[in-house]
Specification:
Helix content: 40-55%
Shape: globular
Number of domains: 2
Structural class: alpha/beta
Number of helices: 13
Order of helices and strands: HEEHHEHEHEHEHEHEHEEHHHEH
CATH superfamily of the largest domain: Periplasmic binding protein-like II
CATH architecture of the largest domain: 3-Layer(aba) Sandwich
CATH topology of the largest domain: D-Maltodextrin-Binding Protein, domain 2
Radius of gyration: 21 Å
Largest sheet: 11 strands, mixed
Number of strands: 11
């Protein structure tokens, strides 16, 4: 009986160790920046796709001997990865969900790091007539009324959340053959909208980076304060994941003078203009 009791105890101990380890399993990297021994992981979407995260990660690695593992995910999926302890930190644009995560205790260090804005782009002939729209909600109402082809990411990303907020402001629940859900990332959905000549709400950073490739689309509506898009960081609580310490240091770096300069000037050499605003500018629109 004694040996059986010991065996059960050993089994339960092993089970708990495996369960704990599984809870901290990191998600596979989309790309890595730096080659140092101090590793941490970060989930985000467009800042990774457009190269901003690479610029920040490599600059940080030079002084901290780090390797940053980027996990490509929209804001909704990034939030889930953080909650499930699959990444050490995230960069997202979903203000209400961010604040709730901090309130619930599974996220810390919510810090404003910069912004861009959303544009509603569409075919040059503007079949819905959104150029004359008074605000974003009006533009969406015109698209729905005309049943003009509209592309939605439909992936619970920050962009998708913003889109759904706009439909709600317009008192519309979009549905029908004209409303096309891609379940894809920003760049891929924008390129599909261009190929199929439909409307889409894209962030300004992605638009600037690929506008020369667009054959059919142009900016048709912009300028509503509602469409300003602020980015924040969220971090695991202390000790929750192996890379939390260096992720916390990375957030400090991103908010430093050096990090903010990288954000505010990123893209000028490639596109002739910066594609993100720094935190000082973004603060005017922070929610």
């Amino acid at each position: 009986m004694k040996s059986k009791s010991i065996a059960i105890t050993l089994f339960m101990t092993l089970f708990l160790l495996v369960a704990t380890s599984a809870g901290h399993t990191q998600t596979a990297c989309t790309e890595s920046y730096g080659t140092g021994p101090n590793k941490f992981s970060l989930a985000t979407g467009s800042p990774g796709e457009l190269g901003l995260l690479k610029a920040l990660g490599e600059a940080f690695a030079k002084k901290n001997s780090t390797t940053l593992c980027w996990v490509k995910a929209g804001s909704g999926e990034s939030m889930k990865l953080l909650k499930d302890k699959k990444v050490d930190m995230i960069m997202v644009h979903a203000p209400a969900a961010e604040k709730k995560a901090v309130e619930d205790g599974w996220a810390t260090k919510r810090a404003l790091i910069g912004s861009n804005e959303f544009y509603i782009v569409g075919p040059a002939n503007d079949p819905a007539g959104i150029k004359k729209a008074k605000n974003a909600a009006d533009a969406y109402a015109l698209i729905a009324k005309s049943h003009s082809r509209f592309f939605s990411r439909g992936d619970n990303s920050g962009t998708h959340k913003m889109e759904m907020d706009a439909w709600e402001k317009a008192n519309i629940k979009p549905a029908g053959d004209w409303y096309i859900v891609t379940k894809d990332f920003m760049m891929a959905t924008l390129k599909r909208a261009d190929a199929e000549k439909g409307y889409f709400m894209t962030d300004s950073s992605t638009w600037v980076s690929v506008k020369k490739e667009m054959k059919n689309l142009q900016i048709l509506f912009r300028g509503d304060v509602f469409l300003v898009n602020t980015y924040h960081t969220l971090l695991q609580p202390e000790g929750a994941t192996p890379g939390q310490k260096y992720a916390s240091k990375f957030i400090d770096f991103v908010n430093s003078k050096e990090g903010q300069k990288i954000i505010g000037t990123y893209g000028k050499d490639l596109y002739g203009e910066g594609i993100y605003n720094d935190a000082a500018y973004a603060k005017k629109y922070d929610r």
